[in-house]
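Let's sit down with a protein and look at its sequence and fold side by side. Go ahead whenever you are ready, and we will take it from there.
>
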Amino acid sequence: MRLLIIGELEGQIGAASKIARNHGARVAQTPNIDTALVELRSGRGADLIMIEAKANIKKLVDMLDAERIVVPVVACGIEANSEIAVAAIKAGAKEYIPLPPDEELIAAVLEAIAEESHAVIHASPQMKKLLELADQVAGSDASILITGESGTGKEVIAQYIHRKSKRSNNNFISVNCAAIPEALLESELFGHEKGAFTGAVARRIGKFEEANNGTLLLDEISEMDIRLQSKLLRAIQEHEIDRVGGSKPVKINIRILATSNRDLQQEVKKGTFREDLYFRLNVISLHLSPLRERKEDILPIAEFFVTKYSKANSINERKLSQAAIEKLQNYNWTGNVRELENIIHRAVLLASGTEILPEAITVNVAKPEEKAEGGLNKNELVGRTVESVEKELILDTLNYCLGNRTHAANILGISIRTLRNKLKIYGEEV
């Protein structure tokens, strides 16, 4: 866990740093937002930012968004200052921590950040076998390709491998190749020099350098444009990268993990993925079965999310009723664990009484013969254009997935890049 503190935290920086270090965090401190951005661009990175609530948090959040740096921000301020706390949350802070710092509260925040990717909850023989294989290969430096449907937990397995590896004390860096626009992905991976292109206001260290001596996860590698794949292949083979606009190569020492929800062998045949890159990435292959094929995992994962979201929403934890459990186990789970998480989160908020009853489990139960995809009656489709039906289907599916684009794209059977382009068109039409 890498913690970056911005400012003096109302004079409590020493106490906050000590608490964080006592719980295993590596702590860095900068005096202001501008120097914090320099720190983040340099490749040293952070998993969590703590900043004074009086600071310009909106400026920080906007600058992080502009440079595609994804780090949760926590605001800290004196306990009596409730107005500043509310303003900080509205400006984009994820949490507010009162000062002087409370050890249990800071520990809980650090644990919550770590918990997002550290839990590998399972009871099925398929997952037990997969984790045994992961344990066997984790200590090597071999590239590993992790495949499976969207939402099965591929990134969780990648982090599990990193924690079991000899690189575990160094950085684990993940980059979602599908979520970053094609024109920006090269800079995101390899970094850029100041002035390399419009908007390059300073040197930016890319994910390869940030992961140096650690592990780099290339999430949804199948979505990478084939023209960029050649540069990626060279980086893996030569153990060096070229920053965009740079004049000399930079040596790197990383372990590559990659994930895909597509059959890369089929993508090779179609000409959308380089065969030589496929062989470089696929030294070891791990395949995650869909949740519907490992039903033994449904209940323990559901119970984990019940506990998590009960705590997150300050709700007394309710147990799942037997009828609710049966409803979960009989569902098809096209969105896998990610869909299960969304449904349990809703159930925790909707439930009343002493148990979570099946009425709170709002799964999609529409029958194909009654409705067309997207919940439209077939008769309602007559006379409409393909474009209008497609738009409604996409937006309804995205709404059903609570805005999760990866899950929505998986249900729709399209790439996340196609989904992003469609949403951009719809946004321009509004």
In short: Residues 103-118 form the longest helix (16 residues). The chain is about 45% helix and 15% strand.
